[in-house]
Design goal:
The structure holds two protein chains of two kinds.
Chain A (H helix, E strand, L loop, with lengths): L3 H5 L6 H19 L2 H8 L9 H17 L6 H18 L2 H9 L4 H13 L8 H9 L10 H15 L26 H15 L12 H18 L2 H13 L6 H17 L9 H5 L3 H29 L15 H9 L10 H8 L4 H18 L3 H10 L6 H15 L4
Helix pairs in contact in A: 2-4, 2-5, 2-15, 3-15, 4-5, 4-7, 4-15, 7-9, 9-10, 10-12, 11-12, 11-13, 11-18, 12-13, 12-15, 13-17, 16-18, 18-19, 18-20, 19-20
Chain B lengths: L8 H12 L4 H4 L17 H5 L2 H8 L8
Classes of the chains: A mainly alpha, B mainly alpha.
């Protein structure tokens, strides 16, 4: 489906730019995964944990490899970096420890085997490991623990990687999934955002299949757009990247929120040379030196920088169609930027990255106005600033977005039960 | 990426100051119990991270662009 926003992200999403960015992400991964042994020494053994930090890193690296392996064609730097990453993570993924854990704790086999399966599906098999992993699914160990709907979706996706064949089915899970009902970032905890993003990843096999027919794509798009806006204003690059990937997985036309989020990722990547991590603390980093500083920085930055590579790989595979930009209409944005800064309890300031993103965006003002308005509504609900919420609802542009409708319901709820 | 629009930042600050003085703000901000999922205070901003970007890139052996 054609969309004017494809043109707006066109400079970011030119194939040669995406190839270069993917190569950067893979190079970041390869350089640092080759130092994992040093880093682990700084992090401590975590031997009492079933899944350690190093295992989570190896799994995220395997996902990056899987996404990069699904490209129709590949460049030499990309192919070389992929091989380096596979060589670096394989000893951790197919270790004696992992084998022993799979034997001892088969009920946790989905989490324990996912990295091996992604690596295998990315073109780096280890047939000697397969029988042990496949037995998790063929002998029913993967159903031995209770799972939330998003975990069931992730489990079926992993099972599909193990067993091959037809795409996994999710029809029976959809009614219980967050995506199958009423949900909005206004109410989310961090686990909910992860659940929504991972559900989209699993159900679409990272954009290879459409969503199950029981899900309305417009409903899912509205949730993804609201999540992108929330992450953009919160400077949460991990969720920004997750929901940009989810956005590509939906295979519909890119929205204004996705276009602005994509611009912001590219802008920050150019500015810093990498993408920020959610929990990175400059104070903690500057207190360290040498390997300890590198180990800390990598542990805080690997998620966003690996996800950025996954996003580029998916965008290369989707190959956006570029159209001429839409004409701009002048709307004053200052009042809405001011409202967002004035929400009680917010940490935003004129120095916030999203202010620069708005100033430099190629999006028309009317789209930015709606994004800003949604951003104010979400933050006013989350910070429980009802005065700001009431004002924003009264002045929000029309037609009403899904976020405005949910914000109205939130405010109505506060007023309806005020006298109880 | 070049600036696409010029924003009046002084006007933004002026409007923000007015908005934060909303007469009903004090009354509506008082609610018992936790606020819904407020932004964690430990989150460093891009501006803060940018101040040590060179050191991070050096530690992680990232090749940064020559110009910003």
């Amino acid at each position: 489906m054609a969309s004017p926003y494809r043109a707006l992200v066109a400079p970011v999403c030119r194939p040669e730019v995406l190839e270069q960015r993917l190569a950067q992400s893979l190079d970041f991964a390869a350089r640092n995964l080759e130092r994992l042994e040093e880093y682990v020494g700084e992090w401590g053994s975590e031997s009492e944990h079933l899944v350690r930090l190093v295992d989570r890193i190896a799994a995220e690296a395997s996902l990056l490899l899987l996404a990069a392996s699904r490209l129709p064609q590949t460049t030499e730097p990309v192919a070389a970096a992929r091989d380096r990453i596979a060589a670096a993570v394989e000893p951790w993924i197919r270790s004696h420890r992992q084998r022993d854990l799979l034997k001892r704790y088969p009920q946790n086999g989905v989490a324990l085997s996912a990295a091996h399966l992604m690596l295998t599906n990315a073109g780096y098999p280890a047939p000697e490991f397969d029988p042990l992993v496949i037995s998790i699914f063929s002998e029913g160990y993967h159903r031995m623990t209770d799972r939330a709907p998003w975990q069931m979706i992730a489990s079926r996706w992993t099972e599909h990687l193990a067993m091959g064949g037809a795409p996994a089915m999710f029809r029976d899970v959809v009614p219980f999934s967050l995506l199958g009902g009423r949900t909005h970032p206004i109410y989310w905890r961090s686990e909910d955002a992860l659940a929504v993003a991972r559900s989209i990843f699993g159900m679409t096999d990272f954009g290879r299949h459409p969503l199950p027919p029981a899900l309305r794509s417009s409903h899912v798009r509205a949730i993804v757009d609201a999540a992108l806006i929330e992450a953009l204003f919160a400077e949460d690059f991990e969720n920004l990247l997750r929901f940009l990937i989810a956005s590509v997985c939906l295979s519909d036309a890119p929205s204004a929120a996705a276009a602005l989020a994509r611009e912001q990722v590219e802008r920050t990547w150019t500015q810093l040379g990498f993408l920020p991590g959610l929990r990175f603390e400059t104070e903690s980093f500057t207190a360290l030196s040498g390997n300890a500083a590198a180990a800390y920085a990598f542990s805080q930055l690997y998620v966003s920088n690996f996800l950025a590579g996954v996003l580029c790989a998916l965008e290369i595979a989707v190959r956006p169609v570029y159209l001429p930009p839409t004409p701009n209409e002048i709307h004053p944005l200052e009042p809405w930027i001011a409202r967002r800064l004035a929400v009680r309890g917010t940490t935003a300031s004129l120095q916030s990255a999203w202010v620069g993103a708005i100033a430099e965006s190629r999006l028309p003002d009317r789209d930015l106005l709606r994004i800003l308005s949604d951003g104010v509504l979400i933050e006013a609900c989350r910070q429980y600033d009802l005065a700001a919420l009431l004002d924003a609802i009264q002045d929000a542009p029309t037609p009403a977005t899904a976020t405005r409708q949910e914000a109205e319901a939130f405010l109505d709820r506060q007023q309806r039960y005020q006298t109880l | 990426m070049a600036a696409k629009r010029s924003l009046d930042y002084a006007r933004v600050l002026e409007l923000a100051a007015v908005a934060s003085q909303h007469p009903s703000a004090e009354a509506t901000a008082q609610v018992d119990g936790p606020r819904p999922a407020a932004e964690p205070p430990w989150r460093d901003t891009v501006v803060q991270i940018a101040s040590v970007a060179e050191s991070i890139a050096s530690a992680l052996r990232i090749e940064r662009p020559v110009t910003e």
